[in-house]
Amino acid sequence: MKQTWIAAVAALGMASPALAADEIKLQLKWVTQAQFAGYYVALENGYYEEADLDVTIMPGGPDIAPTQVIAGGGADVIVEWMPAALSARENGLPLVNIAQPYKSSGMMLTCWKDAGIEGPEDLDNRTLGVWFFGNEFPFLAWMSHLDIGTDGKAEGSVEVLKQGFNVDPLLQRQADCISTMTYNEYGQVLDAGVDPSELITFKYEDQGVAMLEDGLYVLEENLEDPAYVDKMARFVAASMQGWKWAEENPDDAAMIVLDYDETGAQTEAHQIRMMGEVAKLTAGSNGALDPADYQRTVDTLLAGGSDPVITKQPEGAWTHVVSDAALK
């Protein structure tokens, strides 16, 4: 696989004119961390430069919605979860998935075992922490799948606690369960001194409601330009080269991410652990979206009961045009 991507990047780079490198602004979904290691590796190891690209990686944050950034012209391509992208598309922002570096979902619900929760049916009449800004869509679809409302703590419903980007609601017993990612918040809970035996987790993958995360999205109108498609093909090829290198060199990839963390908030131990977990999610992806994964995401979203995330089958929400060119 590594050799395939190296060859792809070389071939695509040779096809490009030896002029000024093409500029690309990439908006990440969250802050600089190993969740996005492949892009930082591609930048640091010179894969973008070899592909005749000048890539600017823009970290996200709690007040940054990638969909809004690209809608305002602030980015050429964004990292986003598919539920948020499809919701934005249905509401008039024509986003298209051009590549899917993440094959699996890392989202789960982490609960106190001593709260008496043993299975999904025990989530009823509880207080559950949920992220918003588009991250709530998988949770809402799952609750609908379980026929559990989200109108407040009562029989047949749950109290949805708008969760900040930390694990305090669980540690302080404000919620029976909180949203976590396998590669991030779950580790933060353990770092706080909680033993895994005290917890019970529900991975969305295991519950059959997993949705695609961390795909690459662009505006549909741009794909009409062959030069733009060529530029994005080189970007995807170089990025996937970065991801495969990161999978094979997780500790070194984590250190590269740390070098680009201008906040100084990340730690070596946390990033190494994160990269190890992220590698499990990107494994098996060659960059091309699997239509079966896409349809599973859509079907789960459409099963959203009285308050679905999307109301109809999307059309034109993904394409292999870019990934096919990248894989040549």
UniProtKB/TrEMBL annotation:
Q: What would be an example GO MF term here?
A: metal ion binding
Alphabetical keyword list: Iron, Metal-binding, Pyridoxal phosphate, Signal, Thiamine biosynthesis, Transferase
Could you provide one GO biological process annotation from this protein's UniProt record?
Answer: thiamine biosynthetic process
Q: Ranges for the SsuA/THI5-like domain?
A: 34-253
- Reaction(s) this enzyme catalyzes, per UniProt: N(6)-(pyridoxal phosphate)-L-lysyl-[4-amino-5-hydroxymethyl-2-methylpyrimidine phosphate synthase] + L-histidyl-[4-amino-5-hydroxymethyl-2-methylpyrimidine phosphate synthase] + 2 Fe(3+) + 4 H2O = L-lysyl-[4-amino-5-hydroxymethyl-2-methylpyrimidine phosphate synthase] + (2S)-2-amino-5-hydroxy-4-oxopentanoyl-[4-amino-5-hydroxymethyl-2-methylpyrimidine phosphate synthase] + 4-amino-2-methyl-5-(phosphooxymethyl)pyrimidine + 3-oxopropanoate + 2 Fe(2+) + 2 H(+)
Task: Describe the protein's quaternary organization and the partners it interacts with.
Answer: Homodimer.
Question: Could you identify this protein by its name?
Answer: Thiamine pyrimidine synthase
